[in-house]
């Protein structure tokens, strides 16, 4: 019971596989994949996420560029910066780290990104293509979860998957990916959210429970079935004086309480987070190869 789904170790394995492919590209005299990240403002969590992404690029041999903009950047200025990246032949893919300052409309920004360079998979073109089962960049967090289920051989066919949280970047796409045909998929999926009545009645029947709510310790042991697989997407910074940073990261699952009851469980940190990074790198490699939209 309580077998740890070690996303950190698995992410390292996947990154080693990607590094191998980058070496092959270098040997053939090809340009290495190049990921750019756009960071607006100085949100602490966003800084951390972006620096993890840049470091991961270095580890696998990708080139990376970080473009920083102040909080005061206008929407128009950001859109122009996106146009530059869209038109820069050196850049294979790029991401705009969310959240953005409130005066910038996130939809406008995401729609401005060329779908062929949208390695976060947030552009409606990629969402639509994913829904239609066409080649697409899949959003990194759900893709990372699917990859984790796949590599740990967790059965999904005919199983009941319960997802809590319906965001467009996690809950909604993971529901889609696990309900569609093939493996990992063929599951019966229930998508729960803040208006779900009697939430625990659903979660207690879940063979696989995926939690993306953003409330630390939200899922407790009484809410899960014996032997369930529990995947915790939540990351919340909680004040912690024993840490040098002054905070620690908490998941949406009461890990200590749930672990003895679960067959498999992801830790936070070290579970879904590193898998997200691996999937972003995978998408960037696809972009460099022109595997989704051609070259
Ligand atoms: P969000 O913050 O946009 O939305 C939260 C969702 O939870 C909503 O769909 C809402 O309906 C649901 N919800 C809120 N209260 C609820 C309740 N009481 N009962 C049932 N459902 C409820 O979601 P998000 O952007 O997917 O983020 C969720 C968490 O996942 C956050 O902690 C975020 O930091 C984390 N996250 C982690 C990664 C990663 O790489 N590990 C990536 C993205 C998000």
Do you know the CATH architecture of the largest domain? 3-Layer(aba) Sandwich
The H-and-E topology, N to C, reads as EHEHEHEHHHEHEHEEEEHEH
Overall radius of gyration: 19 Å
Structural class: alpha/beta
Shape: globular
Strand arrangement, major sheet: 1-11-8-7-5-6
**Name of the CATH class of the largest domain:** Alpha Beta
Number of helices: 10
What is the first-to-last residue Cα distance?
A: 47 Å
Layout of SSEs?
Blueprint: E1 3-4, H1 7-27, E2 34-40, H2 44-60, E3 63-69, H3 75-87, E4 93-96, H4 106-112, H5 124-131, H6 140-151, E5 160-164, H7 171-179, E6 188-192, H8 199-203, E7 208-211, E8 229-232, E9 236-239, E10 247-250, H9 255-258, E11 264-265, H10 272-289
Parallel strand pairs: 1-11, 2-3, 2-4, 5-6, 5-7, 7-8, 8-11
Antiparallel strand pairs: 9-10
Helix pairs in contact: 1-10, 2-10, 6-7, 6-10
Characterization of this structure:
- It is a single chain.
- With 295 residues, this protein is an alpha/beta fold.
- The chain has ten helices and eleven strands.
- 39% of the residues lie in helices and 16% in strands.
- The mean pLDDT is 97.
- A six-stranded parallel beta sheet has the order 1-11-8-7-5-6. The protein has a three-stranded parallel beta sheet with strand order 3-2-4, sandwiched between helices.
- The site of nicotinamide-adenine-dinucleotide (NAD) has 23 residues, from helix 10.
- Nicotinamide-adenine-dinucleotide binds at residues 141, 164-167, 169-171, 192-194, 196, 199, 212-214, 233-236, 272-273, 276.
């Amino acid at each position: 019971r309580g077998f740890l789904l070690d996303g950190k170790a698995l992410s390292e394995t996947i990154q080693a596989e990607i590094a191998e492919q980058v070496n092959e590209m270098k040997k053939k005299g090809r340009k290495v994949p190049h990921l750019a990240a756009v960071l607006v403002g100085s949100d602490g969590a966003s800084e951390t996420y972006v620096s993890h992404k840049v470091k991961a690029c270095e580890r696998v041999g990708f080139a990376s560029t970080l473009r920083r903009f102040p909080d005061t950047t206008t929407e128009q200025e950001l859109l122009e910066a996106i146009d530059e990246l869209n038109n820069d032949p050196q850049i294979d893919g790029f991401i705009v780290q969310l959240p953005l300052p409130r005066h910038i409309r996130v939809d406008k920004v995401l729609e401005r990104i060329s779908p062929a360079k949208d390695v976060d998979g947030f552009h409606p073109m990629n969402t639509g293509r994913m829904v239609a089962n066409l080649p697409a960049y899949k959003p990194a967090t759900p893709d990372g979860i699917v990859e984790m289920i796949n590599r740990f051989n967790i059965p999904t066919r005919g199983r009941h998957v319960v997802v809590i949280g319906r965001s467009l970047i996690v809950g909604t796409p993971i529901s889609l990916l696990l309900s569609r045909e093939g493996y990992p998929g063929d599951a019966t999926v229930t998508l729960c959210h803040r208006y779900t009545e009697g939430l625990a009645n659903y979660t207690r029947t879940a063979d696989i429970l995926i939690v993306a709510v953003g409330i630390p310790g939200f899922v407790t042991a009484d809410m899960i079935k014996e032997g369930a697989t529990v995947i915790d997407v939540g990351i919340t910074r909680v004040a912690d004086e024993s840490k040098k940073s002054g905070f620690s990261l908490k998941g949406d699952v009461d890990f200590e309480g749930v672990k003895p009851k679960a067959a498999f469980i992801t830790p936070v940190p070290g579970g879904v987070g590193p898998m997200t990074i691996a999937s972003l790198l995978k998408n960037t490699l696809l972009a460099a190869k022109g595997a989704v939209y051609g070259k």
